């Protein structure tokens, strides 16, 4: 008899996040049954600063997941959604609601005093920087955050021009390395696909939220790491 899988819901604001996550989790976590819920209109709301509409829509998506799929845990994959918002949403449900990049932030601040952040969607920068500062405070350390944002790469990704996206992102990571950072955070899940290419040329650790998010899920569900 096959072992019962543990149900996890991913809440997405970008279709570009789904492929890298599913490819990774299919190989690394066969014990999990993943359900993806997507509303790419949330990115427009986030860019416009419509926070209450973002909160309402995320709550609707979580409620739909709860009623239809009964997850034991939900994970918000959008870096532009704040940790505080994810935590406030969790109070309305019987399962944990985690933010995918917080475990990565906790790892990044242990790498050294200067942490680089590469982003392609500008609204991601503020919540990602706050996330890193929160993780640093939790760890009892101080960090300096160095940012590189390349919106042209995000535009290329939306146009399915992955070659241009990857080239621009790799250049941003190189710029961060030249600014003497101890590690580079790829702020968005949609960037995870580029990790093998970028890591091959990197001189410092380059972090995505894939492996660290799985560690957090397993810990929350009491599964072996």
Would you give an account of this structure?
- The protein is of the alpha/beta class and 225 residues long.
- The chain contains ten helices and eight strands.
- It has a four-stranded parallel β-sheet with strand order 2-1-3-4.
- α5 (102-108) crosses α6 and α7 (151-158) runs antiparallel to α8 (162-178).
- The longest helix is centred in the N-terminal third of the chain and has 19 residues, at 51-69.
Features:
10 helices; 17% strand; 225 residues; alpha/beta; Rossmann fold
- Count of spatially separate domains: 2
Helical element count?
A: 10
The CATH topology of the largest domain turns out to be Rossmann fold
Q: What's the story with the biggest beta sheet?
A: 4 strands, parallel
A few lines on this structure:
Helices cover 49% and strands 17% of the residues. With 225 residues, it is an alpha/beta fold. The radius of gyration is 17 Å and the shape is globular.
Q: Could you outline the blueprint of secondary structure elements for this entry?
A:
Blueprint lengths: L5 E7 L5 H11 L3 E7 L3 H6 L3 H19 L3 E4 L6 H8 L6 E3 L2 H7 L5 E6 L5 H15 L4 E6 L1 H8 L3 H17 L4 E4 L8 H7 L4 E2 L2 H12 L4
Parallel strand pairs: 1-2, 1-3, 3-4, 5-6, 5-7, 7-8
Helix pairs in contact: 5-6, 5-10, 7-8
């Amino acid at each position: 008899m096959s072992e019962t899988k543990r149900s996890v819901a991913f809440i997405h604001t970008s279709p570009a996040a789904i492929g890298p996550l599913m490819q990774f989790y299919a190989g690394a976590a066969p014990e999990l049954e993943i359900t993806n819920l997507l509303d790419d209109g949330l990115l427009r709301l986030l860019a416009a600063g419509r926070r209450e509409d973002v909160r309402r829509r995320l709550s609707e998506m979580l409620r739909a997941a709860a009623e239809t799929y009964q997850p034991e845990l939900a994970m918000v994959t959008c870096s532009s959604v704040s940790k505080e918002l994810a935590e406030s949403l969790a109070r309305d449900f019987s399962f944990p609601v985690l933010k995918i990049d917080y475990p990565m932030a906790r790892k990044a601040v242990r790498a050294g005093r200067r942490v680089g952040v590469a982003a392609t969607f500008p609204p991601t920068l503020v919540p990602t920087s706050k996330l890193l500062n929160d993780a640093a405070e939790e760890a009892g350390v101080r960090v300096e955050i160095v940012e590189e944002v390349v919106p042209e790469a995000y535009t290329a990704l939306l146009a399915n021009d992955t070659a241009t996206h990857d080239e621009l992102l790799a250049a941003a990571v190189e710029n961060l390395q030249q600014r003497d950072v101890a590690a580079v955070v790829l702020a968005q899940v949609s960037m995870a696909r580029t990790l093998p290419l970028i890591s091959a040329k990197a001189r410092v650790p380059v972090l995505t939220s894939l492996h660290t998010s799985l560690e957090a899920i397993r810990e929350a569900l009491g599964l072996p790491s």
